[in-house]
Design goal:
The protein is mainly α. It has 7 helices and no strands. The chain is globular and about 45 Å long.
Length: 98
Amino acid sequence: MSLTGSTELDALLPEATQLVGAIHEYEPEQVHSILARHTTPDELRALVVLLAGMVPDDQTPGELLGWVANPPEYTRLRSEGVSAYAAGALAGREEAAA
């Protein structure tokens, strides 16, 4: 069963998931390694489309990127089992209050 409706995009799902994790874990070498495996514009375009499809469209950019505002707090919350969405929102709120 296809998650995306496209075998090409389905094949990219593991790497898209790894890319998200590498970005959230601040692993630039892994980010570079994943992106370097996709050398053609079509491959990169497919990866971008897949990643865009994985982003909730009912949140503001600030909500989606709240985790960037306070990485130590985000990491602390995630290590305590808080979901990525909640940890990002809380870390962003914590930074705004500081």
